[in-house]
Amino acid sequence: MSTVSKATKPETAQGPFYAAVEEAQAFGRRLLVAHGLSEGDAAIMAGCLVRADLRGVDTHGLQFLPQYLDRVRRGMVNPKPNLVVERITPIIGLLDGQNGYGFVVATRAMAAAIEMAKEFGIGIVSARRSTHFGMAACYTLQALFTNASRSMPAWGGREAFLGTSPFAAAAPSGQELPFDLDMSPAVAARGKIRRAARRGQKIPLGYALDAQGHATTDPNAALDGGVVLPIGGAKGSGIAMLMDIMGGVISGAAFGGDVRNQFLDYDQPQNVGHFFMAMKPDLFVPKDEYLKRMDALVQRVHAQPPAEGFDEVIMPGETERRLEVARRRTGLPYHAKEITALQQEASKAGLPPLPVSNAPLG
Question: Cα 60 from chain centroid?
């Protein structure tokens, strides 16, 4: 792989710069281990960050690693939580995340829900005292809810109250693509607005309001006391409130605007809550029949005539899967400022830099 030359250093070039998937994961894992995580937990978190970049969800990717490392250095994240799922009933468990990284907490909770589902058909785990867990699709073997720090008004309001808490669900199929949904109740995730601010770009009208309640294209105005807007008006606001109930109220975590903002609040841990559910897909019909029915659904979706402006009708998650295939070949693209921040983290930890190229890798 060609590395960045002196003439194209991230400090002086705009990029994008490309990193191989394996190199990016190894780089993230080394940095996390240097900050106290076990090899296993570091591999889980680095894998989730890189998977987000692979799928084009770069609002939740490796470029946010400096922020996650800053929080553990400040004592806001416990790098070595002792995660034990307490069984409430045979199919329901509670997990105290002990302020560990949400990636690790969520992985442990989802695994416990799956084990229950294997034995009893369904498994539910609620987690509290967790932190931001990145891309929800990392955990959607069945279904998931989480809550988040406030960034969206309740419908009709102008102040941030609800989180842009993701809803994610997945269902396997046979020969066809699976159903793979990972969505925010906001028109655009706050990560997209932060990315625009970091890169000096504008945001489209309709993404956010400024602190005075006016529509804005300035990402910094949206982040400085502004709010993001819900999809579908009152419907998106209602979905966000449901996520807050499932992730926060039920679990015993923070809720109703009390989840701490990982980018602004350093006085106490976030206390994010999660809700996971896993269900065997063949509970009501035989497995072979279920798979055939799912394949038929996907085929019918693909067979739909496209509307004006569209070339095809696709399944939720299909675009991300295609992008993942392409980026495994070309490498993961990062902006110059993102590479600079990552290399500075490596330097502070006394670790080798992330090898990058100023051209696609393949």
Answer: 5
Dihedral angle, C-alpha 61, 62, 65, 66, nearest 10 °: -110
In the chain the first and final C-alpha atoms are separated, in Å, by 10
- Report the 10 Å Cβ neighbour count for 278: 25
pLDDT digits (tens, 9 = 90+) for 38-76: 999 999 999 999 999 999 998 899 999 999 999 999 999
Q: Which domains does the chain have, with CATH numbers?
A: 6-73+331-349 (1.10.1530.10), 85-186+230-279 (3.30.1370.60)
Cα separation, 229 vs 158, in Å, equals 10
Q: Which two tokens stand for residue 90?
A: 């045979």
Q: Tokens in use for 10?
A: 């991230």
What is the C-alpha separation between 239 and 186, in angstroms, rounded? 10
Cα(362)–Cα(355) distance, integer angstroms: 15
Tokens 């004006």 belong to residue: 308
User: What is the average per-residue pLDDT within 243-267?
Assistant: 93
The residue assigned the tokens 């295609």 is: 322
* Helix 190-199 and helix 336-349, axial crossing angle in degrees, nearest 10: 90
Q: In 3-state terms, what secondary structure has residue 19?
A: strand
Q: Which residue has the tokens 């655009």?
A: 188
In 3D space, the residue among 75, 102, 64 whose CA is nearest the CA of residue 345 turns out to be 64
Q: Is 123 helix (H, G, I), strand (E, B) or coil?
A: strand
